[in-house]
């Protein structure tokens, strides 16, 4: 059995504030990097399928480590976990800032991810045990506002830094802030933890790492090596088998590393599925849009960042409003409206042209972010609200793990679709262009024609990938109709019911 968690009568606002600053820095670093991907591709001479590892590798490490956070949160104090997480994040940031080859940059990102993996579940768990169910929506809304401020300023700040400095400045900019946050945590966090007799199951951690890591690696490699590669389908098969053994082992243990029994609560199970589907659509959109704007349209990094600014600001403003609406109306109506908007805007993103106006892109991206703001936080909070307090660490760890896995799968899947469809369109457009030639072209004309064909082919590949996100959003929309307002399970009644069943069986 998990260690019961004592409810806090007065929310620890100091601890929450420090944790939010740490989470904000981690989120800011991610949003800074999205705009920089095309510049990194050019500077380090890597392809889109390779540079996506900066996002996918980050999520890969998160997917491996986050399952262990349920154990860590129960075992160690908030102070110890926060300081360890920020230390790792700071070291990774410094390393990435001095990277001159892609592997070093990737290692720095993965060390950052090791710290980030602890921060978000830790903050979510503190929020859950600090606020009663009826006030959780508003609290999560404020939490969302703080975190969404990073995507609001990140792209614009990133664009300005890249335009005036090297992309490495993105990491140099974050480093001193991360050090200050680490020092603040060291001097201000004073919480203590009662000694708990709980040990980490090393074999479960190994199975979890092979399972989630294998699945993530398989999907991530598919974009570059193709689905027919033994390395791709081999790691996927190994990952699925290891994950199946891991789940079976957890269900048999009295104190599992990650408690899969929480899926007996229907609203939590439903919220997990919807969040996974939405995350697939969201992460892919955040990756495809900068590639279209900068690579195809030639829009500067600063203007690309400014294009994304109104949508991110709108999302940040909506977070506390959505939180209050959730407390009043529940998650179902918000999810239905938000997913409908997301699906429609994703469809219009699949109709981009070489001449789509800057204003059109701003409006479309802003409306899409508005829709997204009404989905993730309400759906996730509604699912967590049904869980007993003692399994909150498992609920937050499970949600964070699945979001990382689905984000990586979504990114890898849609980059694969974009790459494969770009190749297909390039072949078709190349044949059509050659067919219309009346005479043998000069090398200069041939080079220009090839460049135009590749631009058009990449555009069509991006449009095809966005069209797939329409289907992904449609699946989430259908599932959202089954959402009901969750009520926290009364464990006293649960125990009594179980005792009666045992007594009845004993009597027979």
Automatic annotation (TrEMBL):
Belongs to the major facilitator superfamily. EmrB family. It holds the Pfam family MFS_1. PROSITE patterns: MFS. This is Multidrug resistance protein EmrY. It is a multi-pass membrane protein. Residues 15-488 form the Major facilitator superfamily (MFS) profile domain. It comes from the Bacteria. Coiled coil: none annotated. The keyword Transmembrane applies. Its main location: membrane. InterPro entries: EmrB-like, MFS, MFS_dom, MFS_trans_sf. The gene is emrY_1. The keyword Transport applies. The chain crosses the membrane at residues 12-33, 53-74, 81-105, 111-131, 138-157, 169-189, 201-220, 232-248, 268-292, 304-322, 329-349, 465-483. Keywords: Cell membrane, Membrane, Transmembrane, Transmembrane helix, Transport. It is found in: Cell membrane.
């Amino acid at each position: 059995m998990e260690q019961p968690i004592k409810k806090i009568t007065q929310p620890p606002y100091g601890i929450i504030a420090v944790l939010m600053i740490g989470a904000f820095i981690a989120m800011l670093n991610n949003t800074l990097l999205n705009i920089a991907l095309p510049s990194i591709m050019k500077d380090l001479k890597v392809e889109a399928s390779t540079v996506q590892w900066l996002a996918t590798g980050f999520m890969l490490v998160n997917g491996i480590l986050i399952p262990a956070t349920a154990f860590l949160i129960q075992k160690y104090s908030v102070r110890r976990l926060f300081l360890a997480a920020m230390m790792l994040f700071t070291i990774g940031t410094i390393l990435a800032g001095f990277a001159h080859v892609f592997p070093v940059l990737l290692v720095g990102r993965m060390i950052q991810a090791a710290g980030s993996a602890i921060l978000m579940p830790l903050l979510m768990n503190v929020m859950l045990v600090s606020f009663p169910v009826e006030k959780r929506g508003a609290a999560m809304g404020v939490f969302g506002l703080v975190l969404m401020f990073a995507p609001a300023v990140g792209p614009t700040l990133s664009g300005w830094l890249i335009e005036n400095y090297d992309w490495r400045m993105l990491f140099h900019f974050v480093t001193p802030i991360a050090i200050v946050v680490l020092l603040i945590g060291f001097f201000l966090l004073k919480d203590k933890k009662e000694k708990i007799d709980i040990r980490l199951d090393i074999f479960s951690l190994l199975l979890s790492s092979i399972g989630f890591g294998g699945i993530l690696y398989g999907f991530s490699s598919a974009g570059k090596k193709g689905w027919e590669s033994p390395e791709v389908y081999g790691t996927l098969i190994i990952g699925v088998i290891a994950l199946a053994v891991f789940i079976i082992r957890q269900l048999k243990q009295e104190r599992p590393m990650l408690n899969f029994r929480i899926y007996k609560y229907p609203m939590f199970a439903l919220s997990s599925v919807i969040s996974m589907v939405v995350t697939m659509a969201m992460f892919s959109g955040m990756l495809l849009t900068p590639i279209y704007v900068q690579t195809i349209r030639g829009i500067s990094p600063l203007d690309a960042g400014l294009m994304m600014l109104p949508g991110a600001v709108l999302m940040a403003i909506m977070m506390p409003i959505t939180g209050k609406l959730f407390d009043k109306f529940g998650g179902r109506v918000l999810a239905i409206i938000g997913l409908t908007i997301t699906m429609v805007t994703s469809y219009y993103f699949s109709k981009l042209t070489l001449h789509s106006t800057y204003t059109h892109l701003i409006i479309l991206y802003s409306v899409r972010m508005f829709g997204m703001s009404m989905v993730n936080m309400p759906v996730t909070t509604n699912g967590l609200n049904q869980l007993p307090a003692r399994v909150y660490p498992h609920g937050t760890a499970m949600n964070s793990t699945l979001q990382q896995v689905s984000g990586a799968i979504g990114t890898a899947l849609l980059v694969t679709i974009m790459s494969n469809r770009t190749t297909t369109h390039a072949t078709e457009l190349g044949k059509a262009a050659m067919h219309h030639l009346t005479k043998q072209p000069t090398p200069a004309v041939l080079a220009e024609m090839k460049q135009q064909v590749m631009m058009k082919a990449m555009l069509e590949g991006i449009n095809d990938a966005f069209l797939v996100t329409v289907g992904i959003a449609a699946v989430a929309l259908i599932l959202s109709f089954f959402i009901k307002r969750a009520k926290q399970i009364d464990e006293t009644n649960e125990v009594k019911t179980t005792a009666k069943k045992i007594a009845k069986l004993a009597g027979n």
